[in-house]
Amino acid sequence: MTSPTVDVHAHILIPEIEALVAGLPGLAEARELDARRNGPAALAVSGPMVGERVPRLTDTAVRLAAMDKQGVDIQLISPSPSHYHYWADENTADKVYRTANEMTAAHCAAAPGRLYGLGLAPLQHPGQAVHALDHALERGLLGVEISSHAPGRELSDPAYEPFWSRAEETGAVVFLHPFGCTLDERLDRWYLSNTVGQPAENAVALSHLIFSGVLDRYPGLKLIAAHGGGYLPTHIGRSDHAWSARTDAGAGCAQPPSSYLKRIHFDSLVHDPRVLSSLIDVAGADRVLLGSDFPFDMGTEDPVGALRAARLSTTDFDAVRGGNAVALLRLARPQRGGTP
Question: Which positions fall inside the Amidohydrolase-related domain (predicted)?
Fold first, then answer.
């Protein structure tokens, strides 16, 4: 039986989260930082772009119709990264992740077998991360989405060890999706905040997980990196060289950095068939999953077509299109039949 087509990078917008943080101390400062990082020209485009896509981000019927048009059988839905709100205090963070988990679960429940979801974990409060993960799993979600860092903390921070341990123990998915780039105003024009910033943040976050030994300690972790892992997979040779040439670079992980790419899953959203082919070469066809960033403008309206452009073998094409996700997420085939 042909595997369903599975998109692991799709989002939901949750107005209830923005309502509960409205007017709280810290929100205005966070938005000012976001505005400086993106620049006025980007904000002028992003606002109307998101507004036009609200129905696809909130209405299950509209989402399913768009999926049918794309030839996508199943989506793994994660909250818009704009909902992270890592500036929030513990009480607010608790409300944010609970709302995110509950609303995402409700959205997916409207289309069982076709929609699966991820919740949120507040990285700014490491002690809450395990509770947030458990809360998500209890509501039928498959794991949680996190950013590339929290204020003052990298993903290599020892405070996150209980979170990684719990994620491995439960078989939960952790979807690494950056939001914002700490290069700040250097990227405040031409949408460099996204085109350069997101791949850079992916590379930094994954490097912290690799070089610190997190992936040695939790080899069963189900980690999916958005945007094809950013710059790291195509420049992993430099990391390998540092690991072998310098004692400081090689002190934290047991194997060359490139070997850990085969322990990470990556989405296919790289916007270049040559880069996608390179990603598959270094990580393995069994480690790449179809991703579209539905429905944002930096995604693709035709994820299967973008995958086909890489001219993979039939076996690899089918694996990336859906077979790998079915195995990783332990999915059943949805009621909708047929794939492109």
Answer: 6-331
